[in-house]
Amino acid sequence: MAKEILCGFGVDVDAVAGWLGSYGGEDSPDDISRGLFAGEVGSPRLVKLFERFGVKTTWFIPGHSIETFPEQMRMVAEAGHEIGIHGYTHENPIAMTREQETEVLDKCIDLVTKLSGKRPTGYVAPWWEFSNVTNELLLERGIKYDHSLMHNDFTPYYVRVGDSWTKIDYSGKPSDWMVPLKRGQETDLIEIPASWYLDDLPPMMFIKKAPNSHGFVNPRDIEEMWRDQFDWVYAEMDYGVFPFTIHPDVSGRPQVLKMLERLIEYINGHDGVR
User: Fold this and answer.
1) What is the SS3 assignment for 130?
2) CATH code of the domain occupying 10-197
3) CA dihedral defined by 242, 248, 253, 258, rounded to 10 degrees?
4) What are the sequence ranges of the domains in the chain?
5) Rounded distance between C-alpha atoms, residue 270 and residue 274, angstroms
6) Shortest CA distance to 44 belongs to which of 19, 69, 18?
7) What is the pTM of this model?
8) Within 13 Å of residue 91, how many CA atoms lie on the same side as its CB?
9) For the segment 41-90, what is each residue's pLDDT rounded down to a tens digit?
10) Which of 111, 62, 69 is nearest to 90 (CA)?
């Protein structure tokens, strides 16, 4: 069997939206300025990097970033990159009602369609959190794939809905919560697995309100970890997907851009990889 390893970059343009919706920087002018860097400086740098290597990627752009950085996001679309959905203000889907999630999703589909000239087919949940209705809402709107869940790591699969599990209640009898997870029903939504261990943000972006925040990890250490994962996949699998998740907030910095250059050159040196 010929080897086919599909490598891809998903670029999440969290920018200001990330600080408003997830990172706890909504009251900090300094954190908001870091979001402005991601949209105005980091994003064009990544477009230039991908152009140099002839790589087409998928950019999952919050609606807030589309409307806040219209010039830079047009640059992404005009370079031929796919545009997917990533919420509006990086809001948490599991914190919203069905009506709220629907309104956000419809707004963002409209913004992506106007930006790219075509309806989006891919979705990344902010914070990689799926609500009980996310899957249903996506399929109703013609979304074909998601990149948020982690049932597998390098093999695509179909998303299941209706999984249920029992939380521990120490005030009750153990027999009430000693219950296995129950699996739900498979749907038509394709999952391209996400992985925190192929994400640039947790190790390489400082977040003041995160108790385990890093931001000062040497990119060469992350590069080694990513290369080790790629080497395992290449040695052990004939078919697989290898999706990187990067952010202009992080990968738009010089030290990470250099890391990405080395990784792309390394991966391109393998047969059967595209």
Assistant:
1) coil
2) 3.20.20.370
3) 30
4) 10-197
5) 9
6) 69
7) 0.96
8) 18
9) 999 999 999 999 999 999 999 999 999 999 999 999 999 999 999 999 99
10) 62
